[in-house]
Amino acid sequence: MYLQPKNECAEYARLSRRGFLGASAAGAAALCSPRLAFSNSRGSGSARPTVIGLFLRGAMDGLSVVVPYGDSDLYVHRPTLAVPPPGAASGALDLDGFFGLNPNAAALMPAYQAGTLGFVHACGSTDPSRSHFSAMQSMETGTPDHPGSGEVSGWLARHLQSVAPSGSGVLRAISVDELLPRVLALAPSSLPIPEPADFLFPGAAVSAAARRDALEGAYAATIPPLAPAAVSSLEAIDLLGGVDFAGYVPANGAVYGADPFSQAMRSIAVLIKAGIGLEVAHYDYGGWDHHSAQGPIQGTLAGMLASLSEGLAALRLDMQGRESEYVLYAKSEFGRRAAENGSAGTDHGSGGMMMVMGKGVVGGQVHGSWPTLQAAALDEGDLAVTTDYRDVLAEILTNAVGGTDLSYVFSGHAPTPLGVVL
């Protein structure tokens, strides 16, 4: 999903209008014909939690979401834009005596207090680029130490390549979007499905079975890769056709909003509970590039943050008691500069903030080493990165999911233990 505010930079606007946010050249066949994203592999890997990946494209301002109100320099750098401290009008909701949560994200507080949700601050990439395209590319391929290396496959794709399928292997990964993101480039049995409930064989239902069989027979007579790809696609249609999306009732009184993000979270919850062997579900939430009129309390950021938080809160409540079945991360390509600009917004920065929720997450705290916002501690005016985003993802894959080959997923990177996911 891409929201198109008028306060984004020209580069991000071009990327967004092309509808090519992170989609790889290697995935071009999948973009034109999703069937080609499938492999015909089968396996017997044990059941694993579904990794839910959220890419908050455009660079969300972590300093306005998880607010370091205990660092007085925040209010020096942002005299008009900083979220006030707890106790003040429209103030942050206290998290730990130093950090506070933007009041528009109040829906996340129950998950944080229950220990299901955690944050990682001053987190980001070693790639110094402030270009959306370049930063997204190196982050999704997992190669920030070697930007422009030419790596084609995404790090999540390499994870799936390194483990046997969990279940039948018919549909291992989906992107709830029109495109496969770069992070899933070359992923086995992966497919972009913007509306999973509508992923049905086209045409009249009365003749669908006959037309399906005819199509399968026609493709069976072709040569690879068309034959196995077509069969795999038809199997995926059969698989999702057996899922009762319309009759689904969220658990624990959870209510999903009508907005696209909340509906995507609902679809993902349905698929996880259906037990179809889905290993990865990815969602692009764009529009976080706020160079002007950012509005962290009332405005663009406030509205987007409320939508994000309410969708995540509904998912968490719906999956309460089933936390072992999913692990979620949310991140951006980089953060925003420490100082506000002259247009009531913020420009491209460095250190950002990640969210993690679900299986194994050590929640109820803000992880990471805080570098401070003192002028001497800034990275060319930006919040410094003290936690490599790959270290968070490595703990997710190793401790929550298991079985992955980190030396293949993040080649050349030796993860530092963080204790974010155990």
TrEMBL record:
Protein name: DUF1501 domain-containing protein
Comp. bias (Polar residues): 131-141
Entry-linked Pfam families: DUF1501
Region (Disordered): 131-150
Origin: domain of life: Bacteria
PROSITE patterns: TAT
Taxonomic placement: Bacteria, Pseudomonadati, Planctomycetota, Planctomycetia, Planctomycetia incertae sedis
